[in-house]
Amino acid sequence: SIEVVERAQKRPRRARLYYMRKPKHDRGSVEGVVEDYLKRRRLVRSGAVGRGEPGKSAKNPSAARVGIGAR
Q1: Contact 57/51 with Cβ under 8 angstroms?
Q2: For residues 36 and 39, what is the distance between their CA atoms, to the nearest angstrom?
Q3: Cβ distance 48 to 40 under 8 Å?
Q4: Does pTM surpass 0.85?
Q5: CA gap 19, 12 in Å, rounded
Q6: Are 19 and 25 in contact (CB under 8 A)?
Q7: Residue-wise pLDDT tens for the chain (71 aa)?
Q8: Cα 16–20–23 angle (5° rounding)?
Q9: Cα(7)–Cα(19) distance, integer angstroms
């Protein structure tokens, strides 16, 4: 006879997201979302967007102080 020394680990069941199939969760066409993303990406790459005041960081705009009281 054959003895089972160690059983193979059971694979976890894949979650079936049936609720996502309901019309409530249907996003419809995403062409508009993709088009907006591509437009923004083109603008950023061309340099038209994303250039603020030189020397100022977007995270810390007060960091570029000059003159009296500057640290």
Answers
A1: no
A2: 5
A3: no
A4: no
A5: 20
A6: yes
A7: 677 777 888 888 888 888 888 898 888 898 999 999 999 999 998 887 655 555 555 556 565 555 565 55
A8: 145
A9: 34
**For residue 6, which phi and psi values (nearest 5 degrees)?**
-145, 125
Amino acid symbol at 18: Y
Start-end of H helices in 1-67? 31-46
Q: Are 58 and 52 a contacting pair, CB within 8 Å?
A: yes
Quote the radius of gyration of the chain (alpha carbons, Å). Answer: 28
Find tokens 């997201």 and name the residue: 17
> Tokens at residue 20, please?
């996502």
The structure tokens listed for 15 are: 């979650």
